[in-house]
Write a structure and sequence with these properties.
5 helices; 5-stranded parallel β-sheet; Rossmann fold; alpha/beta
Length: 161
């Protein structure tokens, strides 16, 4: 029986690519975006909307690093509040959350690659909002996956000319 997935943020760069990968793999997958999921709704409402999916992929993010300094509320909502709400919805549903973060949770001073247990030290509002999401979820639910992407994500159909 194929696994069932919900990709929240399915119109963004990462989300749309994840949707394609899951569809190609034969998984049962549904994409959620601003048109069919209101992330300002209650956790209980989100849990109802996302019920039936074994895995919830959070592809929602405020990714404009420089603008996060002035649009702190928007960055906080997308990068901290949404992941917290999705984690709580997963807990209610018995689903598992797959969340992607960023290397901006580190200070960039290390001479060796960062590992999952490496000391965090964000230097920007963007990095702080992403770190807040990670630490908040760790107390809520055991995650199946927590990935960190480099600051630039490119997919084959979005490469610069």
């Amino acid at each position: 029986m194929p696994k069932t997935y919900a990709v929240v943020g399915s119109r963004g760069t990462f989300g749309s690519d994840m949707l394609k990968v899951l569809e190609t793999s034969g998984a049962q997958v549904k994409g959620f975006n601003r048109d069919n999921l209101d992330l300002t709704d209650s956790v209980e409402s989100l849990a109802r909307e996302l019920s039936g999916s074994e895995f919830i992929v959070n592809a929602v993010a405020y990714t404009k690093v420089d603008l996060a300094e002035v649009n702190q509320d928007s960055a906080q909502f997308a990068n901290s509040e949404v992941p917290r709400k999705l984690a709580e919805a997963c807990k209610l549903n018995g689903s598992r959350l797959i969340h992607i973060s960023t290397d901006y949770v580190f200070d960039g001073e290390s001479k060796s690659p960062y590992l999952p247990g490496s000391q965090t030290n964000p230097k920007s509002v963007y990095g702080v909002t992403k770190l807040t999401a990670i630490t908040a979820r760790q107390g809520l639910i055991a995650l199946i996956g927590l990935g960190r992407l480099p600051s630039a994500v490119l997919s084959p159909d979005r490469l610069p000319p």
